[in-house]
Design brief:
Chain B: It comes from Bradyrhizobium rifense. Chain B: Pfam families: Ald_Xan_dh_C, MoCoBD_1, MoCoBD_2. The complex is a heterotrimer of chains A (165), B (747) and C (337). Chain A contains five helices and five strands. With 165 residues, chain A is an alpha+beta fold. In chain A, β3 and β4 form a beta hairpin. Chain B has 17 helices and 32 strands. The chains are: A alpha+beta (165), B alpha+beta (747), C alpha+beta (337).
């Protein structure tokens, strides 16, 4: 089979990339192998661990199960794009403060997932945070610290909103 | 400010590598580029025993981009002798040699490596390689081989065999007032670090390699590569700056290292090989163990007999060993003890040390049995343990350098609210849930291994400390910076730690909870030597305020060396170095165990784990709202990262208690749940509140820093505490781990 | 992953045409298809990407009820205000499954086409009738603690893994498919099938048909519903047993009852005859227990999964008690009340 590569455009962390991909290249492999954005991690390559979580058009998905070609035109945010101008996203800062990681390998996925959780606005309780983060496994067992970090960021976000109102 | 006020050691310090890790900038083994990098994908055997009759590679070779397919028929040859394949931590036996012959020793064994220009091509081609086998007889079931268990003829280095029996355990058991006998089974577990095993081997020209490798020991991997492939040490550099978890699985060089290097040398190109998650179920695991335990106590609840016989799985080619039953002879005072440990050979890969190897399962079995005996004797299980407190290591008769276990019992019990516990099982109900409390003791050795380090001070006031240690999430980067900062009186930010590189000072593998003590002590010693040099130069300076001082009378603080009694009188480190025209002050030092002291003393970390569980009495669903782990681990260098180590151990212990097991189809000799969807590790929702307590423990003998290490202790005792709490909640004993809900509702 | 051809469909008609050539599979969220392709379980020669099709709306139906476009993601569906208000049972079931990131990609149509989680189906080095008709079923006599206790055959004991479909079964949903012959509607019980002698076929769709929508008839159970899922860990795991229960209550009496089971059969399991036992009865433990007995009357274990029969009875009972009390299970709350 000699399928020609397909031209697609991806906007990754604000930068547009026009690239030719084979149909079977996943978004994760394109990010890691083609664009050298290795922040997004491969932990299982089967959608079972969440380490590859990125934001596609603002929504968190497992990039290992997305064919890049089917995401043509999408805006993607990876862990490399969370900080703005050298300033860490509040959740990144909270992760450091709460020691919400050990080996760091699930961390980019946890962060992208956590940032999405903050945007989604559906987590009200600690139980909600735990449930809505359950798609991100952490073998180092940093779960309680991750929940603490997200709770801190969530409270800060809510306080910010109240102040604005 | 008083000098004594500045202490980085003991201060909760954010990880120095934190920013790199939260921004995705920390690079792991598969994330290094090289010009013309090739990708290798391993093809695995699909039978558990036999030989390869034929391997068909034609279709695979026709995939565009495929460069070469290595099989046992065309594989680049490694060293001939077994000993060349033995790494630092290899157990006795014949180390596995990938593609060595047509023989199949276990399902999932690598039988070919497909190398291609792109990952996709290699992956596609790998799926097109087919093998025909002459299938041999296999056995993967420990129960079947249990009766043929044997005592390993050659002992594994560093693993003490069970001690000789003391007293008359059988007689004492027969005569005892209270006694229990029970069988425990703990199923095979897999490490499953989040990072896939990977090696990026960069070909730097003739026989010269830079290898980015997932390993817990860069120098162990370097030694393996030089010895297997006959390369010079100076030509092989192994780098493992960031390691995405390992838990023991990366102590030994794994398949992908051999393959990447072999292919790189054969093709004279850079090659990356990454295992799939499924393939990671065939590179070593915590073996299934069976434990037959008999315990007896007298009227006062004093242990009069301990008999612990364990059988563990190993492979057909190596005698993997752990310290499995020895704990039963040293955790409690008892005059009559008989311990034994046998191996049974299965058609699997050789097991591999996994977090607290031996103790994690041996202590689980013992601590469940202790709970059973306490219950039989009608004594509170915490009280029972206190009555049987061991003040000596009775296996050896040696003294503990410290043992603040009593404080762990007290503070842990207070934190969980142990007084709430009902003595009667199944008595506390809340809605549909039965509530129970359970506890267990934990223990792990506090080892100091030979390690060296270098410290280098520069006139800009920066200190570099380096050693070929690894940070697998343990916090090594950070604590070495803290140790250096404390020693030289600098801010942590002024210290550059260097680890994860085989070209640095000699270091053992990162395991056994010994890195903080060993590498930390070496760094401390090197820093002390640098301080001596600074002092020497400072005193020589014209009009030196330190001219009359002795080394004991000076202090290093805020980038200065000054008089302890009058810190205003001193010199900046930069001044001293400029005056002597020094571009750097450098020192290398070693840390090593004190053999003389070891004749009299032993060092262990202790813990008390308390669990509250809630069990749905109809559905068998277990929730763990709270676990308290109180730990006596000597000095805690970084309470923040230290706490994380314990949290991680506890979470893995919860996995052992409730979730984790390899499910093997013994007809096929295959692990069937070789993925994260079906091999369950705890998820966010499973983990509620975990409280970590570090009790105060001073120990001036265990290591120069007073540090004992924390990587393992968190898991030890946790599964038993949960199982004992489930018994307290429901009246049902979980003796077969993991205690999945079917065992609760049908038990 | 294998190599394959890729086409992008710009209309349903184009997609249907593409599907009519053999070896073609439709790709939506990819959460199951790509997964299976990576394991070499599914090897389409060609993939037709249907993500650009206008099937992403949830719309009102003239006759009441809602029409859910096949490409509406599981998340969009679960968090849709109309679904939350009128079909909370469906929302709850969706939120009990997978993870937020999978639900963001997975679609309504794709969920219906999810394939089993049988270990052997996923491992191409073992015989499996579902992958390879006539090869044999390794799960029988093998590792089968997650396998079927109802409706299994000698050739397959796999279970359907979806949570959403269990709720759809209880809600009497219908599946709209389009093929070369036009549009047809398949009732939910007829959509998925039992394995019988040809387990490679999960459903009654033809290869050249495409799911275009799921239709929800009007339903109002007030708060008398629940989705109760029992699994090996508290989240992000497939069901051992799940129950979607909905009761229509009047004057303290059950007027109508719908109960569907997940994790126990090759399809979401309903037994309308058994449901009849509940009608006109008081919503108490005795009634529900008798119903659970009846529903599981023909259950047969395979050894390791024997426990699921009793577990299913108890889960049915608890779910019905929750439904009767009007206290549906909250999926973040791990206490089963």
């Amino acid at each position: 089979m000699d399928t020609p590569k397909i031209e697609i455009a991806l906007t990754v962390n604000g930068a547009r990339h026009d690239i030719a991909v084979a149909p079977w290249e996943t978004l994760l492999d394109v990010l890691r192998e083609r664009l050298h954005l290795t922040g997004s991690k491969k932990g299982c390559d089967q959608g079972q661990c969440g380490a590859c979580t990125v934001l596609v058009d603002g929504e968190r998905i497992n990039s290992c199960l997305a064919l890049a070609v089917s995401r043509d035109g999408a805006a993607i945010t990876t862990v490399e794009g969370l900080a703005e101008g050298g300033e860490l996203h509040p959740l990144q800062a909270a992760f450091i403060e709460h020691d919400a990681f050990q080996c760091g390998y699930c961390t980019p996925g946890q962060l992208c997932s956590g940032v999405a959780l903050l945007h989604e606005g559906r987590a009200q309780t600690r139980e909600d945070i735990r449930e809505l983060m359950s798609g991100n496994l952490c073998r180092c067992g940093a779960y309680t610290n991750i929940a603490d970090a997200i709770e801190t960021a969530l409270n800060r976000q809510n306080a910010g909103r109240e102040a604005a109102e | 400010m008083e000098a004594a006020d500045i202490h980085h050691i003991g201060n909760p310090t954010n990880r120095v590598d934190g920013r790199l890790k939260v921004t995705g900038a920390a690079r792991y083994a598969a994330e290094y580029e090289a010009p013309g990098l090739l990708h290798g994908v391993i093809v695995s055997a699909s039978v558990a025993a036999g030989r390869i009759v034929s391997l068909k590679t034609e279709r695979a070779l026709s995939v565009p981009g495929v460069v070469e397919i290595f099989t046992h028929e065309n594989c680049g040859s490694g060293a001939w002798l077994d000993r060349n394949w033995k790494d630092e931590v290899a157990p006795p036996g014949h180390p596995f040699r990938p593609l060595h012959s047509d023989r199949i020793l276990f399902d999932g064994q690598p039988i070919a490596l497909v190398v291609a220009e792109t990952l996709e091509a290699a992956r596609d081609a790998a799926s097109l390689v087919t093998a025909a086998y002459e299938v041999g007889q296999h056995c993967t079931e420990l129960e079947v081989k249990r009766s043929q268990a044997y005592e390993p003829p050659e002992k594994r280095s560093g693993i003490p065999p069970p001690p000789e029996p003391r007293g008359k355990a059988e007689d004492a058991f027969e005569r005892a007032r209270h006694r229990i006998s029970a069988d425990y089974r703990i199923r095979a577990e897999h490490h499953n670090p989040m990072e896939l095993f990977a090696t990026t081997c960069v070909y730097e020209g003739k026989d010269k390699l830079t290898i980015y490798e997932k390993t817990q020991g860069s120098q162990n991997s370097q030694g393996y590569v030089t010895s297997v492939f006959g390369l010079k040490t100076k030509n092989v550099r192994v780098i493992n700056h960031y390691v995405g978890g390992a838990f023991g699985s990366a102590l030994r060089p794994q398949q992908q290292l051999f393959f990447a290097v072999m292919a790189s040398l054969e093709l004279k190109r850079s090659v990356r090989v990454v295992l799939t998650r499924s393939q990671m179920f065939y590179i070593g695991y915590r073996p299934e163990t069976r434990h037959a335990i008999s315990l007896a106590a007298d009227n006062e609840g004093r242990l009069t007999s301990i008999i612990h016989d364990a059988v563990a799985a190993t492979s057909h080619y190596e005698d993997y060993q752990e310290s499995l039953v020895n704990w039963s002879g040293m955790m409690y005072h008892c005059d009559n003890v008989k311990l034994s440990y046998g191996l049974a050979k299965l058609n699997t890969a050789t097991p591999c040390d996994m977090r607290a190897p031996g103790a994690a399962v041996g202590v689980t079995a013992l601590e469940c049995a202790i709970d059973e005996l306490a219950h039989a004797a009608g004594i509170d299980p915490l009280e029972f343990r206190k009555r049987n407190f061991a003040t000596l290591d009775e296996n050896t008769g040696k003294q503990f350098t410290s043992k603040a276990l009593g404080a762990c019992y007290e503070q842990g019990a207070a934190s969980i609210g142990w007084e709430r516990r009902s003595a009667e099982p199944g008595a506390v109900r809340d809605g549909h849930e039965l509530v129970g409390l359970g506890m267990a003791t934990g223990m792990w050795e506090a080892a100091l291994m030979k390690a060296s380090a270098e410290a280098k001070l520069t006139p800009d006031g920066r200190l570099q400390v380096s050693t070929a240690a690894s940070d697998i999430g343990t916090g090594t980067w950070t604590i070495l910076a803290q140790i250096g900062a404390d020693a030289l009186g600098l801010p942590v930010g002024a210290v550059t730690p260097l680890i994860g590189d085989s070209s640095l000072s000699a270091s053992p593998v990162e395991g056994g909870s010994w890195t903080a003590a060993s590498n930390g002590s070496a760094v401390l010693a090197a820093c002390e030597a640098v301080k001596q040099t600074v002092f020497k130069h400072a005193r020589k300076m014209a009009n030196s305020p330190l001219a009359a001082a002795s080394f004991d009378e000076v202090v290093f603080l805020g980038g200065r060396i000054a008089l302890r009694t009058d810190p205003d009188r001193g010199l900046s480190l930069a001044e001293v170095m400029h005056a002597s025209d020094l571009r750097e002050i450098k020192a290398s030092r070693k840390a090593a165990p004190k053999l003389l002291q070891m004749r009299k003393y032993v060092s262990y970390t202790h813990s008390a784990v308390f669990a509250e569980v809630r069990v749905d009495r109809d559905l068998g669903i277990v929730r763990i709202p709270k676990i308290v782990c109180a730990v006596a681990a000597g000095k805690i260098i970084n309470p923040k990262t230290a706490r994380s180590q314990i949290l991680g151990g506890v979470v893995m212990g919860i996995g052992m208690a409730l979730h984790e097991e390899a499910m093997t189809d013994h007809r096929l000799g295959k692990i069937m749940n070789h993925n994260f969807a079906e091999y369950h590790i705890p998820a966010h929702a499973d983990i509620a509140d975990i409280k970590v307590i570090f009790v105060d423990e001073q120990d001036d003998k265990v290591s120069p820093l007073g540090v004992k290490g924390l990587g393992e202790i968190g898991i030890v005792g946790t599964a038993a505490a949960v199982a004992n709490a489930i018994f307290n909640a429901t009246g049902k004993r979980g003796r077969d781990f993991p205690i999945t809900l079917d065992k609760i509702i049908s038990g | 992953m294998i190599r394959f051809d890729y086409v992008r469909a710009n209309s349903v008609a184009e997609a249907v045409t593409a599907l009519s050539s053999p070896g073609t599979r439709a790709l939506a969220g990819g959460t199951n298809l790509v997964d299976l392709m990576k394991y070499d379980v599914m090897k389409p020669r060609r993939v037709v990407d249907i993500n650009r099709l206008p099937l992403k709306d949830i719309s009102e139906r003239d006759s009441g009820g809602l029409r859910i476009g096949a490409l509406v993601t599981n998340s969009a569906l679960a968090w849709d205000a109309r679904i939350a208000k009128r079909y909370p049972l469906l929302a709850s079931a969706i939120l009990a499954g997978a993870s937020p990131q999978l639900r963001n990609a997975a679609t309504t149509g794709g969920n219906l086409l999810q394939r089993t989680r049988c270990y052997y189906f996923y491992d191409t080095s073992t015989p499996c009738n579902k992958r390879d008709r006539g090869a044999g079923c390794s799960a029988i006599g093998g590792i089968n603690r997650i396998h079927a206790v109802l409706g299994a055959s000698d050739s397959c004991i796999a279970v359907h893994p979806s949570d959403m479909c269990v709720a759809l079964a209880a809600l009497d949903a219908e599946v709209e498919v389009e093929g070369p012959q036009g549009v047809r509607t398949i009732t939910f019980p007829e959509f998925h099938r039992l394995p019988a002698d040809d387990p490679q076929q999960d459903n009654t769709m033809r290869a050249d048909e495409l799911i275009t929508a799921v239709i929800l008839p009007p339903a109002d159970f007030g708060r008398n519903h629940t989705y109760l899922k029992v699994r090996d860990r508290l989240s992000y795991a497939f069901a051992l047993v799940s129950v979607a229960a909905a009761l229509e209550m009047r004057d303290g009496i059950v007027r109508d009852a719908r109960v569907a089971l997940g994790g126990v059969a090759h399809k979401p399991w309903r037994d309308k005859e058994a449901e009849g036992l509940l009608k006109g009865e008081r919503p108490d433990e005795t009634t529900f227990r008798a119903f659970a007995e009846r529903l599981m009357r023909d259950a047969k274990g395979q050894g390791q999964n024997d426990f699921k029969i009793e577990l299913a009875r108890r889960t049915i009972l608890r779910a019905l008690m929750q439904a009767a009390a009007g206290t549906p299970q909250n999926q973040s709350d791990k206490v089963i009340r």
